[in-house]
Design goal:
heterohexamer, A alpha/beta (130), B alpha/beta (103), C alpha/beta (120), A: 130 residues, alpha/beta, Hypothetical Protein Ychn, Chain: A, 5-stranded parallel sheet, 5 strands, 37% helix, globular, C: 120 residues, 4 helices, 28% helix
């Protein structure tokens, strides 16, 4: 089946981010298709490649990056809620004259339209709230 | 068409599970995840309502095994709660037409 | 392709950004022509109180944004009657016209008619 | 020595205010802030307990004015709730020896 | 200068990082020689359940970290008895020894004896 | 009086961050001393200088920066919970070989000892939880 996942929860702060990761891994293991993962609200922090967790804790951002690379996942970070929370790619950093960018390269910064498109084409939509 | 409901908040702290219980209908499934698994305890304020949901209103009630295990709850849950792993979570989400997340 | 999508709004305004960011998601979905229903439930009914004045916070007024929903052709607007009653509110005093009151059983039926359920 | 308690969660959604009410003692103050100001409504599940707190247990009960105003609650609150602004919040925190934040 | 500081822990473990990060703050305060008391209350008492095994999440086991508190000379350990009772738990089955049970009134007294109240 | 403030709440996500800001402003207006502001847990996001909120929303990070400059406030971001959440100064970015840093210059990245020291010397400690 075609799944679209919405993640509203910050990594490293609440468990929902781990739940979503585990759910996505299981979906892919079972041969389902994840047509898009959309990070919204505090979920956008998942795309921050500067996250440097201690060695004895899971690096959720790295885990999503690895999953995205292994399965060519379409992982989208909502541009409006990300800018507000200080998650930027190089293009937006330049546009707003910010001194640096921090979005991991596996993530795409895009609008809510990407989410609506995924909802339209998905057989199932699953939300992971904070 | 039936719905899979997920609940991730403790019923001792929040009203989330109560809200979900009021909306479940026959054929739906309710999956307790994260801190929601405290709702599987017989001491939970929602315990009688959940039992009635299973027995009288024909709702299927589950709790996510790794979340029970993390919290030391495996041997403490009510016997009307079924335990599933992530494969079960995925299967429930395919068997029901929609998934409602209560958080 | 148009899908039947229900937005269930269960959180109070201002204390968190959920209500505001839910509205943004709702309007985006409306713009893309989906068949949207909106359900206010639990503390989400507080989004509908009139005379909100968050100037001191400072945040934007949510109720006035909500009243623009019909302009986006979002016209299937529901409120969970037991949530209103528990808070001592009546449909007539709310800042949004055209709300249909639903019992818990009605909400279950509404859920069953959707293609997707989005919750905020 | 007395304590200022702050509560920032809606009593319709969470048990936070109830927990605080059980711990308040005579001479303490309780200040409702953010979504906690919904606790000032007469319809709140905690309304009778708060009234008893004020009348019988001699606890001073306040709600933060800008948070009431934001939510459209100014004309709806119980008459045993006093309204303060941020200056009042600061003054309460100086008048009591400690501040306990319930969230 | 040593201050009497009470840490009140009210949140369940694993669902959020609060319990873990509260413990870090608690141990840091102990290392700096303050006069610390710790109170487990509301869902915070779930931090004390034995047989926690969060390997699948993956997070570190909180209860085993808590059992190290006496090594940091944190020995004033309290549990709110009504919180335990409401959850069907007894003091004897918890993963931490030396917990003193307090009524709500006792907790109010404990609060009144502190220089500062830190809540998590 | 001497106040120490602890802020555990993310800016732009929950109101507690605004409440803390308003409280601190009022303290200073009334002549109280704020000996330290300690950002912990999700509060550390307040130090992210890349935050780019829309023009009609308050920029909480900028407001804290302005307050810190105007009153020479000691605003400390907890290093352990900040690194985990991807908030770094230049020194930490180099140490962990991260491609960029994002901590605003008004904030100091430091350990919990700074918080304990503030608690010891404060007349009042006020916590702003999420």
């Amino acid at each position: 089946m075609k799944f679209a996942l919405a993640i509203y929860a910050a990594p490293f702060s609440v468990q929902a981010s781990q739940t979503a990761l585990h759910f996505a891994q299981t979906l892919l293991e079972q041969g389902h298709e994840v047509i898009r993962v959309f990070f919204y609200q505090d979920g956008v922090h998942t795309g921050n490649q500067l996250a440097t967790p201690p060695q004895d804790e899971q690096d959720i951002t790295q885990a999503w990056r690895a999953l995205a690379r292994a399965h060519q996942l379409d992982v989208v970070v909502c541009i409006a809620t990300a800018l507000k929370r200080g998650i930027l790619n190089e293009e937006e950093a330049q546009r707003y004259q910010q001194p640096a960018s921090n979005l991991a390269p596996e993530f795409t910064l895009s609008g809510l339209g990407q989410w609506v498109e995924a909802v339209v084409h998905a057989d199932r939509v699953v939300t992971f709230g904070a | 068409m039936s719905t899979l409901h997920t609940v991730n908040k403790s019923p001792f702290a929040q009203q989330t599970l109560t809200s979900c219980i009021n909306i479940c209908r026959a054929g739906d499934a309710l999956l307790l995840i994260e801190d929601g698994v405290y709702g599987a305890l017989p001491s939970a304020p929602t315990a009688q309502a959940l039992k009635a949901l299973v027995n009288d209103r024909k709702v299927h009630l589950f709790a996510l095994e790794p979340d029970l295990q993390a919290r030391g709850l495996n041997d403490r849950i009510s016997d009307w709660v079924k335990v599933v792993d992530y494969s079960g979570f995925v299967q429930l989400s395919t068997e029901h037409k929609t998934v409602q997340s209560w958080y | 392709m148009s899908r039947k999508v229900l937005f269930t709004l269960r959180h109070a305004p201002y204390g968190s950004a959920i209500a505001r960011e839910a509205l943004d998601a709702l309007l985006a979905t409306a713009v893309f022509g989906q068949d949207i229903s909106v359900l206010f439930m639990d503390d989400g009914v507080f989004q509908l109180l009139p005379e909100q004045a968050p100037g001191g916070l400072p945040q934007k007024t949510l109720s006035s944004s909500l009243s623009a929903l019909p302009l986006y052709d979002v016209e299937k607007l529901y409120v969970h009657a037991p949530s209103l009653e528990a808070r001592g509110l009546t449909r007539d005093e709310l800042a949004l016209d055209g709300l249909v009151s639903l019992s818990s059983e009605d909400v279950a039926t509404l859920f069953s008619e959707q293609d997707h359920l989005l919750s905020f």
